[in-house]
Every structure is written in structure tokens, then in C-alpha cells.
Amino acid sequence: IARLADYILGMEFLNPILNAIWQAINNPTFEKILNKYAIIYNIKSLILDNNPQITVPKHLQTFVFSQLSLWIENALLARDEYKLDHHYMIKIDEQNINRITPIDYSNTGIIQSSTMLSDGLHQFLQLKHRLKLTPINLTTNFLSNIGFFDRYKHKIYGLTGTLGSNDAKQLLCNAYSVDTIIIPRYKSLCHIKLPTIIVENKKQWIDTIVQSCIKEANRNRSVLIILETRIDAKIIFKELRKQYSHGIVKLYTDNTDIGESNVIYSQANIGDIIVATNLAGRGTDLKKLVNN
């Protein structure tokens, strides 16, 4: 989905409202069902009072009143659900300012340095970490994936290595009126799928991964570990550095970091262990020794 956001005149006047919501939901007496509507009522009163304590430009008042409920929900998301180094990270920008930077952890693993989370979520994460509060941006242009491809009508052609299931093929057929065919591999698969290992807790999960990787590295092999989140990758990386001190362990979780990005461009030597997120799982060409 393509979105283009832009600054709207007067949006900085909404920052006191976001601050008020954040303070309200972090009050120890806050109860979601009962207090949500009380917060909305109080904020509206502060805006509409004859001597308003919160000043909102008239052209934004209708927008503010329609968004209050959603802002409260996103404030709760920022407080309870969104985790540092899982859904987002904090990076220093070119102006030496700490910024909230979203992570596409469930798909590509890419650090989305030019993306701002919508509907106040970005701002509530800034408040959570006591960072500089920036005005809300509004989506001024929007185009869905289906809307984009539909413009090509019956002239859609392409290749994919991930949409081979019957459900996926049926979806493509229904959405775009296209036919699909399976193109056989020109090389046999070289990987071997081992049995799934189920453990009882996080500590056993970490120990199992670490010991398995060290075992393979000690057999003169280079090892790549792909984890779902940046925080998990950092935990495994730290533990490997402790237990595999005689070998080299590399971390690749940030595509905007020159040092980490060099991991995929440098040669993977015998015994090297690379700990990564999905950044290393899609189209990454890791260079290795011929006999590795």
C-alpha cells in the first residue's frame, strides 16, 4: 500500500492533546472502558470552553473530535503492545536527534527510516521514550496494491517465488483475472529440513539455538541464523559471543547501519556465525569460501 503523508498547517497545536491523553492513560487509576469516554469529554471541554485551555485551530476541530477515540487506542498500543527493537528502534538522525524508526519485522526486516507511524502512534512512542514530539502527519495520497495493479487491466505479467499455494493463486485469479503456471526449478534444492524442536521456555529456546549453531560452526561450516525480531537477534548474538569466544559472530539487523550492512558484503569464512533478521532472508547473496 502506497501512502504519501504531508504536514498540515496547525498540526503542532495538537501536541498538547496527545500529551493529555498520554498522561491520562498512565494514571494508575485509569480503566480503559470507563475512562476512555471521560478523557474524550474532558478534552472536548478544554477545547470548547469560553476560555479554552487547549487551543485548536477551527479548521482542525472536527478532525480532532473524530480522532480522539483512535488516538486513545493508539496510546494504549504504544504503552502496552509496541516493544523497542521489536516493532521499532530508536536511531540518531543526521541532525543528531533520536528518532522513532519503525521496523518491518514480520516481512522484510527493513528499518523504515523514512516512515512515520500513523494516527498518533508515532507521537505516543516519542512520549513513551521522552523524545522530541513531532506534529502528526496526515495521509494526503493513498493507493492500494490492488488499485495500482488494476490500472494495468489485462497486461499483468510477473514472476514470484512465494505465491505458490492454491489459496494464493486463487486470490491472484480473483483480484486481477490472471492465469498462473508453475515453472520447475532448474536446480535441485540443496537444503535439508530437520525435525522441529519444541522447548518449554525462552531460556531453553536460546540455549538450543546457540548450542546447535556452535555445533555446526565447529564442523567447519559457516552458519546463518534468521530470527523474527531485532531484540531476539541481539539476545542470541550476545549469548553466542559468550559461548563461542574462539570464533567470529556477526550481527545484521539494521540495513541503515554501514557496519552491520558490511556483514553481507564481506566473505563468510569457515566457522563464522551470522545472526540476522529477515534482512538476510530475502535475496541476500552471502559470499562464502569455495570449500565452506
Descriptors:
292 residues; alpha/beta; single chain; Pre-protein croslinking domain of SecA; 9 helices; 3 domains; Rossmann fold; globular; 39% helix; three-stranded parallel sheet
**What is the averaged pLDDT score?**
88
Low-confidence stretches: none
Order of helices and strands: EHHHEEHEHHHEHEHEEE
CATH superfamily of the largest domain: SecA, preprotein cross-linking domain
Oligomer state equals single chain
**Can you give the helix content as a percent range?**
25-40%
**Spatial separation of the terminal alpha carbons:** 41 Å
For the secondary structure, the number of strands is: 9
How many distinct domains?
3
Specify the CATH architecture of the largest domain: Alpha-Beta Complex
CATH fold description of the largest domain: Pre-protein croslinking domain of SecA
CATH class term of the largest domain: Alpha Beta
In what order do the strands lie side by side in the largest sheet?
Answer: 5-8-6
Q: Return the structural class.
A: alpha/beta
* Percent of residues in β-strands: 5-15%
General shape: globular
The gyration radius over C-alpha positions equals 24 Å
Major beta sheet, specifics? Answer: 3 strands, parallel
Tell me about this structure:
With 292 residues, the chain is α/β, with parallel strands linked by helices. The chain has three domains: 2-142, Pre-protein croslinking domain of SecA, CATH 3.90.1440.10; 144-176, no CATH class; 202-288, P-loop containing nucleotide triphosphate hydrolases (Rossmann fold). The protein is built from nine helices and nine strands. It has helices at 15-25, 32-48, 58-80, 121-128, 145-150, 166-176, 202-217, 230-243, 258-265, and strands at residues 2-6, 88-92, 98-102, 138-143, 223-226, 249-252, 267-268, 273-276, 287-288. Strands 5-8-6 form a three-stranded parallel β-sheet, sandwiched between helices. It has a two-stranded antiparallel ribbon with strand order 1-4. It has a two-stranded antiparallel ribbon with strand order 2-3. It starts with a strand and ends with a strand. 21% of the residues are buried. The model has no long low-confidence stretch (mean pLDDT 88).
